[in-house]
Batch of 4 targets.
Target 1
Amino acid sequence: MTSRPSSSNSRFEVHFDWDAFDRASTVDETTVVVAENTDHTDFRGTLIEIGDLRKPIGRVEVKRLVRSLVLLSDPFGEDQNSFRPHLYAPEFADLTRVVEDHYFSEADYHLSAVLSEGKLTAQVSDWRGNALYKAEHAELRVKANGSLYDAPNLHFDLWAFSLDGATFSTRSASLGEVKEWLRSFGGVHVYSNGLRVSPYGNAGNDWLEMNLARARNPEFRPSTNNSIGRVKVDDVEGVLVQNTNRSGFIESAEFDAIREAATDAMDWMARQRLNTAEQRRRTAVKENATAAQGTRQDVRQQIAEISDKQKKREVETAFAKYDKAREKETDSLRREVQLYRTLSTAGITSATFAHESNGNPLKVIAYSTNAIRFGLQRDIKPAYEAKYAAPIDSILNATASLNVLSAATLSLINPDKRRVAKVGLHSVIESVVATYQPFLTGRSVTVSLELAPGRPFVRGTDAALESVITNLINNSLSAFERINIPKRMIGISSRVLDGMWELTVADNGPGIEGIAVKDIWLPGETRRDGGTGLGLTIVRDAVSDLGGTVEASAHGQLGGATFVVRLTLLGVDDE
């Protein structure tokens, strides 16, 4: 090992003979001589040469060395005076470049979040450095209603990469180089007061559970394989304490707050990307419809300008056939989309009932059956009314509650309900509520129906409106799970005004908490453990297909969440 300090012209050299160390019983038995010589070269730093190897070093060992060198130094390259290693191994030139090169400019997204005095702010930039999204503390801390983080000040950076050939076709670095670089030290690392703390960010240490979040929504979530990040903590007061084995911090409330701040920032970035994609999708649908209509009109204009009457009739006939075939194809696709939404709604309904049944009715059945069994064992000649009527009634009520599952599911998948026709709005609502009634009664939920006079109707499908009502009721039932109140109420009301039908669904649950109102429509966003996060997305899309709008209030007329659906009516029949 040769070292040349920057503060002098001296060169220090030492030779380590590992055979001597192996032969010695203790380290003190070996002699290490450090030689000092004058050196006037410009090179400054330390050079370590390894020779006379007992066995060859393979690619796996070199990879480990590369990772250790990169993480020992500052892989982010901000401090020009920091330790900067270089690896000379001609047989593994591709791996030595990993130590030298940094590819942060190739990242598609750069998340930068700052936690100062308990308040978090964040920004996402694209690979050119242009700011895409910005957020203040309240938008980031939605899960805890804007409360402060009990954590030291920190700076969280995350670079996320799109690892596909198309993305890198115009980049300066190759896809293979970046993948190798990320394999070496991808993941989120922690630096406390300038020093890296392992094992955070090591292979297999997903301390922010990034991969689990990506599994739920792979399109907009970074993972340890396609991103690199760091959390720089300024712990001047020493509130973070390392474990006695010097591996990681004791998971105190302050450390949990650091993890929560980083997770909240990534959740926010995912929501912004998802929201942008949703807006792009909806805009594309409208633009495609407008373009198709414009093209159709252009073709008709061209046909009108044909002077040959015979040729004109032939072209008109051919176009009419084509137009009819396209309309048939569009109608088929519309039915298919509605089928998928209906199946999703049926699945959500089944999940809701299964969840509730597992938590209540099935337990009632078990307890009641045991009561009967114990009673029969004790009383050979039971007095039915006095001892067994109540348990049996409980079994019957629980069974009736469970029967709602099959009835609701079969009702939702009825193919006739996916046909475009006249939809009686109030009759669909009354049918859904009637189907749910045994289950609602078993959950101590009272539904108040206050529908406007007459029978308003629109053109669409019963399935679309059923999806709306069913998912809004499911949403209320899910909300009731998070609050303990003796009287659970769902209010469903409608009114007709100036050719518009307005439906209001409200409950007295906890309201919309822990998530911004604008984000509840995004697929995958849910406040319920094990929830799908698709119910309100289906509501939004189904209402849009019916030509209407839907809006939500965090706390409405009954105290809980309130949803208002507005549709343009075709008419109102008499009672």
Target 2
Amino acid sequence: MSTVAAVARQGLAPRALIPAVIGLAGLGAAAVWTATAWGVGASPDSVKYLAAAQSLLDGHGWTLPFGAVPGAPLTQFPPFYPTVLSVFGILAGTVGDGARWLQAVLLAANAGMVAVYIARMNPFGGFWGPLAGAALIVASPAVMVVHSMAWSEGLFIFLGFAALLLVTEFLETQRPWQLWVAGAFLALVCLTRLAGVAFLMASILALLSGRGTWKAKISRASLVGLAGITPLTAWLASVGLLTGSLANRVFRLHLPGREQLQQAVGTMASWLLVPASWPGPAKLAILALAGVALAALHRLAFRGAASLNATTSARAWAMPGAVRLVWWFLLAYGLVLVAATSFADANIPWDDRLLSPAFIAVVILVAAPFTPAMQRILVIRGERASGLMAASLGLVVAVVVGVSAIRTSAYVARASVDGLGFHLRAWSSSPTLSVARGLPADTLIYSNSPEAIYLLAGKVARPLPRKVDRSVGIPRGEYTSEIDAMAANLMVAGGMVVVFDGVHGSAISLDELRVVLPEATLEVTDDGIILAVPVRGES
């Protein structure tokens, strides 16, 4: 057996894997730091996270200082990500800088997590599988987008897959502390995103299918289930008592539509470098072929050893529990997304952000069978076939990593020059925002982007009333009364209506605003309009 063939199958010495993965993780963290040079990427959701973190630091708990009721509790999002943001805000000096550090650390941690997970899944160790997994994570444009924005997905991914890894370790070693720690991680992942129940479901399935008597298995699964779900239930109950609804959602049946399914297919096809301009049926066909190829690779790598010689352990070739756990998570996460779209929010976009945990799972499932597949081909077909397959798989991974890295580099370069989200340089030169910055601190402001006014102008703003509830896609019965209340508030106290062009917000038109605010003075800027409403009786 040649040295070259051995390296192709197993890689370099195992001790070389650690510095290689650390180097890739550091490269990813540096890329996040570079992409956020103008400030961490901020969407409307991001601003709510950042604001809640600042409220924690100011001693006001998990509240939002802006919105329909300034100072109201944070109810739409679970509280753990803002809590971690506040901790990093203390360490970095400001919440914004803390968010940059947190997101960079999370990308590095997730690249390392994937490498560790793949190494743990592989009964033969190996070098290339874990390294390929870490490289795919760091090079991915989807992963970079998620980690360069102040979103909870990076923390969600780390906590969730750490929990799955701990469950796997417990099933192998039966050490109780691993189960307790796994339960703690599952509790935190559910308090990071409601979709954390997918990790909980996968863990319970794994424990129920593990070794031991049914009494022991049910006891372990119940322990983890209670540990994971109890804090989330307590939080949802507190939200329900405060607001009368669960996580600010109205539950109504609205199944995923054609647009969302097309978006999901397009998102997953982009992971395979399929051009966005290709028609949907072609993307779907490519995804189907990729799924069949992945299933075949797993069958080759992990199926029973009936055809192998008697010296090879059938147990060693069986699919590791860690592999099954990732498949179960993918299934559970898909079910959770369908349920959330069908009952809680019809407007959920099935994009890179929403599907990022599924992408991490797919990377693990792609990279994990590399070494066992090579070993099996070596035993069954010989060294030549093993080397050919290793070269083929390596070439595919190298192409995907290379093209993805080019796209990610372009994204990072563009973000470092232009900024991200509300930290785009265009926002800093906005004439409409400049007017908002100059207003007195106690000015009553209504806007279609209260998040931008809070983050960039340091002022508290309330949202303009919405005609349609986007989460369920139906008209809001409260719209008329909210418009009347807004008009009454502005005419009594005076204030401003600030509307930015190109920002998706209230559907109220300028003509409607002029009808309900007839005394308002209109100012048109290059990127919006401002209505100044005097106190009733003032000229």
Target 3
Amino acid sequence: MKSVAPDGSGGARISASVALGAGFAVAGLAAGGVALLTNERGAGTLGALAAASATALLVGLLAALALLQRLRDLEGALAALSRGETAELGPRGWPLGAIPAHLAAASARMAQVVERERQATVYREELTRQVSEAAAYEERNRLARELHDSVKQQLFSIGISAAAARARADGESGGALGALDDIQAGAQAAQAEMAALLQQLRPAPLENVGLVEALRDQATALGYRAGAEVTVSVGELPPADLLPVRAQEELFRMAQEALANIARHARARHVALRLERRDAAMFLEVRDDGKGFDPEIAVGGMGLSNLRERARALGGIARIRGAPGQGTAVEIEIPLVEPPRALAPEEVARQAALAAATARGDQSRQWAANLLRVSYLILLFGLPFWAVAASLALAGVMLTQAGAASGAVARLAGAESNLAFNQRRADRETLVWLWIGLALCVWYLPVVAPHIWLAGLTSWLAATASVLLLTLAVWTWEGWRRSSARAFALMGVAERLRSVESRWRETLGFWGVISLILVVGLAFGGWSPSLPPRTAVEWSDAASVTLIVLLVVFNGLETWLFWRWRVAAKAERARHESEAAA
């Protein structure tokens, strides 16, 4: 037996088959009912056949509306995928089963391919740069080794010899002792300079020493070089894993640049270097009392742009403060990073429960929307009231389950999260049409009133209930409008335009459905509404006319809304494109 991979493709075939089969069944029943009604009204066989055909076409189109919409979304997602953009089909899967998940996986894989190509290009450029720098690095390493093995050792020997000669020169003349002191001081200065130079020559200056020791070496060399008093203070430092990658080497290079500027330009007598942790950042300060300068005027020189670029590359900031005659201060802040943490078992369980609640809510909401469509079709084609009521009741049950799932999503993801917000927004959109269906059904009360005197009471109750339910529908629709405006405002320009365009096409397509309903109803017998209704036929006609009016009103409002949002999204995209071109 051929095995089926557990990828959801079988579920997609089954759900699509069920959707199409249900659409065929409902279309056949509606066509048969309309054929009987038109034949009873004397339309003849040809008229009944024409009415049945038009009804089958209309009902089949409405029944397959969900499938057609999903196919249209799929087409748009594939078009975005072909342009190299991220393709999103939305959370609803029915009646295409796992196809949205497969499309999301394909989109993610294409994004990975694009990212790998970009990384490969970056890698090639980086490799070229590294190859061009390798020779220079090797030469610098060779010079560092030779200086360390020869000149540094010789300087060390000179210092030792001068110290030994001075120790044995007791009683000698002061001039000889002074000369030995000068030799020893010069050897010490040369050793400090050599240590600093070796750190500068090495591609990895902190390979053999830590950051603090390397900074002390640079400060000591500056003291000999510039004749200034240099102090180094080190406060509490964060663990190395809280620093960005290469942060210590970059801090060393920035301090080196600042100290070199002091040696070349400042003529300072006192220099202070401080390194410490301040809240959630590593803080480096180099301050001097030299001649100073105006940082705004010298912004392009003295290595200041290099300091700022190095700090910016680590997500930090470099501030240069100073004024002529008042010294200079270089302050560098590098933000610390959070170390990567493995997800706790509780978090894994929470995410799994969140995904399950989201899927459960989407499925229940889709079933509710489909049942509402079925109930309206039953109503429009004059089928029994109990069928309308049963379909509405099932839609209410499914919407209640969707609301419970939305509550679970709010508890797991947070009531103010985008996911919970979008779930509530989708619930409101479906709830609007449930309120409308219930408002139409309450007018069946006068039909079932057992006595004439109860008909007036039930008519009053039906009118009051329908007004309240329609008010709820309008209030819920207004909440959906506000939440939709907020959701679109939070989207990026491209995503917003795609979403608005999809809904805009959907509203325009629904005008064709409404027009077809009107043509069929008026051409084959029409409706004879009566309020309050006394028979099931009168109720069906009145409810059908009212439903069509409400469909026109609400779809007209949505068409106007999405037209406005579409124009605004296009204008914003054009503005962004013009700014990018500029």
Target 4
Amino acid sequence: MCGIIGYAGKRDMVSVLVSALERLSYRGYDSSGIAVMEQGEINVWKKSGKITELKKKIDNLSIVSEIGIGHTRWATHGIANDINAHPHKSQNGKISLIHNGIIENFLELKKELTKENYFFKSETDTEVIANLYQENLQQATDKMAATFQTISLLEGSYSLAILNEDNPDEIVCFRKESPLIIGIGEEENFICSDINVLIYYTKEYIELEENQVAIVKPQEVKIYNQQRELLEKKIRKVDWDSTSSEKGKYDFFMLKEIHEQPLVLKRIISRYIKDENQIAFEKLNFINEQEVIKNLKRFIIQGCGTSWHAGLVGKYWLERFTHILCEIDISSELRYRNYPYQRNDVILALSQSGETADTLACLREAKGAFIKCIGIVNVQGSVIDRESDGSIYSYAGQEIGVASTKNYIAQLMILFLLSLKIGKAKKIIRDENYHHYLEEVKKIPLLVEKILLEEDKIKKIAKKYFEKKGFIFIGRGINYPNALEGALKLKEISYIHATGYAAGELKHGPLALIDPETPVIAIIPQDELYKKNLNNLLEIKARKGKIISLITAKDEEVSKMSDEVIHLPETSEYLNPLLTIVPLQLLSYYIAVYLGRDVDQPKNLAKSVTVE
């Protein structure tokens, strides 16, 4: 979503702001802008389109400032144009602010401000905040009173960074359900919506919490609660380094992140599988209690997009290995279903960022019903991490490509280990099977590396089919969710229509789509549903469909029926989803590359969806 950067210090202001905006651009954006305090006056430059358009406006200017803010906008209220771009100024020109999120009651506020003779240049909810803040500053006794009065009138989820000519040496910040981080430096401080950007400047940061106001100056940071009390804040340290944010030898971050998957899997194995093959999740103490496991009646998994697909795979594992009923829902649907939570339910909230708006809303609703919540997140210290009863970190590291790859495989591995742990504790899995599965798990990083060695072959298949107008993905059982995820990957980075189906559903409608111009990508490893899948391939061939099959090595029968084959190493059938996803990621990547797409920043999409 929108990106926020702010800087208070003596570095070259334009260099800091623009470089940060370029790094924030992976989140998705359609315009950008900066506002700086120069000799007590605010100057604003903003432009729709790429950041290069903004740079053209400011490259030849001499800008000297120690206080500034910058923004990348992803359009919500109002089209993408120069006027709607951030930062916005108040009517008297003394306030400038940037905003990430949505103000749900902005129309009502706008009507009230119009009655007070305020006029508006843009269509945004952000300009409403600027004028509302101006009005409250004129009416309130002091700055803090005006700030909290403004906050009390705003409905929605948002984070704000504000410049005020009456206090020219500071940035005022606030957040509610939308991320904002304060970077701590030596005689300089930063604000940012994304920790990926902060690590270029400092590894120390403060996580601004809900409904807190921060006053950021070059020499100090002060944080206040709603009672206007000054708070002590714990300074955290980032364990990532800035080199992980560089593409290195790869053309796109997505390809780099696909190739990082073996390392991610090794990291998860080393973190969670301890001596004597004990699976231990250090921040999941409540579910380590035997009584809790004994009484556990139902898992409710919720997530969005790729995380939802990971949850679908997790449902198969949890039900098979723990014999516990498992329901799964898309977060944006679950939050509006009046769900009948029951005692001894446990909710699993899956989110890469730990800030996903719908997933967070569902978690809070479940906690309001006194349901235990487990967050499966990549970002430590994120809102979902902090508000869950226990968390499991996916340890995928920074993921910059909008299309998630390594965090998906990380979520799969964690869900498999969680299923094994609970299944063993409930004595559903016998000890010999438990140890066998863990030995197979330990081989998965090497098997993924073997698949990556087939990259050139997959690239050739992509070149052969990249001009097709549509694709169908099919899978059965535990491999059906990867059909959905493979189709999603292709859609989001290539803009080709692709649909994933449960293979057994072909006769119920999708067979009407089969023709020589619509390739079918079949996930068909040798598992318990293998023979059922053979029948599906025969149905497709009878209708002259083109088949690209993902098959277990040495499967000659399917190889003869297929137009193209991608070989998979042998593993336990329950672990196949950790392998079948990798060729689908590569195939989607190379089709998008051949089509000339911006793989890391696909149109209309954002990395983290922090607003509804």
